Amino acid sequence: MTSRLDPQPLEWLDRSETRSFEFEGQHYIGFAGDSISSALLASGQTLLGRSFKYHRPRGAVTLANHDVNALFQSSEEPNIRGDVTPLAAGMQLTACNVNGSLAKDRDQIIGKLSRFLPVGFYYKTFHKPKKFFPLWERLIREKAGLGRIDTGWSVRRKAKTYGFCDLLVIGAGASGMQAALSAAEQGLDVVLVDENPQIGGSLDYQLVNEASAAVVRARLKHDVQNHTNIRVLPGHLACGWYTDHYVPLLGPDGIIKMRARAVISATGVMEQPAVFRNNDLPGVMMASGAQRLVARYAVKPGQRAVVLTANSEGYRAALDMVKAGVDVSAVIDMGSLAERGVWADELNALKIPVLERHTVYEAQGKEQLKRVVVAPFDGDKCDSRDAREFDADLLLMSVGWAPAAQLLYQAGGRLAYDSTLEQLLPQELPNGIFACGRLNGAFTLEQRLADGERAGAEAAAFLKGEPLIPALAACRDTQAHSHPWPIVDHPKGKNFVDFDEDLQLKDLVNAAKEGFDNIELMKRFSTVGMGPSQGKHANMNGIRVLAAVTGRSIDQTGSTTARPMFHPVPVQALAGRRFRPERLTALHPWHLDNGAQMMEAGVWMRPEFYGRPEERAQAILREVQAVRTGLGLIDVSTLGKIEVMGPDAGKLLDGTYTMRMSNIKLGMTRYALMVDDSGVIVDDGIVGRIAEDRFYVTATTSHADATFRTLSRHIVEWGLDVRLVNRTGTLAAMNLAGPHARKLLKPLTDIDLSEDNFPYLGLQEGTLCGVPVRLIRVGFVGELGYEIHLPVDAALQVWNTLMEQGAEYGIRPFGVEAQRVLRLEKGHIIVGQDTDGLTNPFEANMPWAVPLKTKPWFTGKPSLALLKERCQRSLRGFMLPQGYSGELPKECHLLIDNGDIAGRITSIAYSPSLGRYIGLAMVDQPLASSERMFQVRVDSGALVPLEPCSTPFYDAEGVRQTVDLTEVA
Amino acid sequence: MKVFDCPVIGRRPISEFDYVGEVRKPPMDADEASWAAYVFNRQGAPGLLREWWYHRPTGRWYVMERDTLKDEVVRFIDLEEVRYDIPA
């Protein structure tokens, strides 16, 4: 660890624990508390990565989670941010985005070609000739992107937790800590969050050597950590702002979804680079980055330094470097010495030369900074004729700051450019959003503390509903800390504005000149600010360049809003745990024990069929045949089941369903079809009458909740005296179907099952196997059938009894697939499969369910009255030709008529009862009304003929479901 | 994510609600054009809008008057106010 300094007063290292790791096949050692980058830098490894486009050498710049050119790859994870990711023992890392090795990246050649690759080159070049596009795409994809993803990874998830507080203070620097204390003193429940593993902010790296700061630091840290009203959360990044102060905090254990009642953003400022030739060489870094290296990681950033500055922070950084043993050759001040006060005197005492009104014209070196070329600077242009050179392996940039205002923008805050501070500052903040500290233009320690105090007090007043006189600008500095134009042109370019995307000054100038002169357009065309750092270094200079080219002000040029989440969040944290509840019926364990293959049906799990997966077809056949010739039993507990009670119950159902329900006789049921305002079918089921003022309604599995919701809204809307009970979960249901259904039930129930007492569509209450039940005689699958509704806790007992007693009739359980076939044979539609979001009852061949003349009103009636004569398509039955053995059509295959699409298949299945493939198709007019053969285009592209036919396919007269065949026989 | 200060049930996150759209009354004796307008057109201009919100866990309906420009709930409407009669 050749560049490791002696222990620093506030360092994050635990020197008692060394950690060894590998990078690019080399062995390294660091300390616990190191980041990956700091450990490498401590060992003298300054080349950390290659740039995205030109594969130029890059190093550490900020050590503040913005070093997007120092991304690392492990076997498990791509794009690891070396500047902030804690070093772990045994890490095996390589550089991202290199072809070969980091040291000998074969793609460096692209940098030599850069002058042939102007901005927009890819857009303009690689779209023609059209037939080459797949080739271009493959080549570019190979070169684009950073880390490699191993798709063979096992799933890793991090649970999300929920947090609540009165006030969330984001940023635990001087102003944030003071704001938290000020609000906590007012009795608020405060959460103080900081993305760094330790609180303190810039107090701990910029003001390390200041005696006055030491007192403040000790007081603030002690007080926030010991205040009963403050919870301190270091190591958590507030990565977005969502409505009503919902802020995701990304921490090592995943995301905390923090719900606050107000938010103070004390997120500080991000140091901005100067733009000059080769400003991207390893060794060129932000002054604050070098200060972080020294103070946090005790790493000496270089041997000989030049400091480029436009503010007093640069002077302070130069002094810090001297203290760390760095030989500071010169301080290059873009402004004048007179503005720097005491700092200039201190440098003078150390005999460090200061060149005022100069700037860095060019950095030189191959893989590492060797020399700095400086020249006189008039605030706009550089005079390279009077250039001077300094040997240096370290160049610090301290030329300006951009507010970390992402959260303010997301919350709807407005920032405006302040020409005194030469910085964007909050101008107008929405309710419950406050800002303080350097983000708000308070730069001296006194200003920052006062501003934090003010913001905390304002937040407390806001939350208590007390009168509030906002004084956002009260504590701002009166001196600029940023240079308005830290940019110098160079004939040979390579003066980067955006390190993420390798954008040079001329790229932005050209983009603006090509007409992309709006900040949003320029961003998308040039990709400035679209890399992993999301413009944290590039946007401010990009705006300055665009403003200069277009002759507009910074405010007129505008700024882009970083959408939440503004910082990359690992997918495992976003995904959280798997929260996809499944509903299981009371008979679920029985199904599993009896070999059912389960499938999802909405939120429910249902048996698809019973048998081994490889015997699917035979199993379904067996089940269908059991129902047609013997007996079948299916679990239909997933049906929606709703009790509708009260004097207006009939009125509610009349208004909600197409057919009249108020005149259903006691003990009878009726098919129920629900359409929406536009006449589109949304649900079907049955309505049965239990008593004069009491109905029982069923709904389809997937629409049950929506049907309950619609009924409950109509009660409110129409002012009805009705109560609803949703019994979907408390009642089980099963359907017993087949010629022997009555014979099986008879000895088990006290209900008179005779045709006279309990006809088709009847509903009776009584007991079955001693259990209170409702029996409904339905034509569900086209056989004699009874739907049995009963309490869930009795379901298994009744099911078992029926299976045992039914054995002599060959009873079988059947699943959803057999049910589909059985229903299709009867021509029954499935809402949502045979109908879509536009299908009305006329198209579904159900004009009988639309009593336009006899009912004055139901939801959707006026639409259906208009649609009746205007149907443009119709559901038709079809069969595959007898003996057809070619490729089978599938659902959603298109019908083709005279070369045009003329409909689609909605259902198709093999009918064991008919021995042929049958199906339904939604067919356009006039084909639907003709008796011509249909043609369907199958997967291979071939056209397969379909014979149109009428439905039902099976037992068209419906004899089987109304009469007990064995009794007839 | 939004939070509603509901009468009866207090502060609840929007994820517990279904949004069911603008409060409207069907024009019972409308001609074809105005019926079509009722079915297919919605008030899209920013401003005050009365909306149906359904709280799933309790099965309770709310009608909120919301400023859609500021995304702020102005008040909760008494459900009596949105009632209408249907022809029986």
TrEMBL record, chain A:
Residues 873-955 form the Aminomethyltransferase C-terminal domain. The keyword Oxidoreductase applies. Residues 166-415 form the FAD/NAD(P)-binding domain. Pfam families: Fer2_4 (PF13510), GCV_T (PF01571), GCV_T_C (PF08669), Pyr_redox_2 (PF07992), SO_alpha_A3 (PF17806). InterPro entries: 2Fe-2S-bd_N (IPR042204), BFD-like_2Fe2S-bd_dom_sf (IPR041854), FAD/NAD-bd_sf (IPR036188), FAD/NAD-binding_dom (IPR023753), GcvT/YgfZ/DmdA (IPR028896), GcvT/YgfZ_C (IPR029043), GcvT_C (IPR013977), GCVT_N (IPR006222). Keywords: Aminotransferase, Oxidoreductase, Transferase. Residues 492-577 form the SoxA A3 domain. It comes from the Bacteria. The keyword Oxidoreductase applies. Residues 587-853 form the GCVT N-terminal domain. Belongs to the GcvT family. This is N-methylglutamate dehydrogenase subunit C. It comes from Marinobacterium sediminicola. The lineage of its organism: Bacteria, Pseudomonadati, Pseudomonadota, Gammaproteobacteria, Oceanospirillales.
TrEMBL record, chain B:
It holds the Pfam family SoxD. InterPro entries: SoxD (IPR006279), SoxD_sf (IPR038561). It comes from the Bacteria. This is Sarcosine oxidase subunit delta. It comes from Marinobacterium sediminicola.
